[in-house]
Amino acid sequence: MNKQELVAKIDELQNRLADINFYKAIELPQNPMVFRNSRRDIARMMTQLRKMELAENAKA
Are 17 and 42 in contact (CB under 8 A)? Predict the structure, then answer.
């Protein structure tokens, strides 16, 4: 993934996590691991984004 795709995917996952948290108040999810997995996916992608930024800065 390039940087723009990664940022778009992070935004999408953050919106999904916000929706899950909203609906959690209404009805408990069938799979409670969705919260943890979503947060971990976001963290992984943000780590990759940071690695890309550091690599760009190292080249300059």
Answer: yes
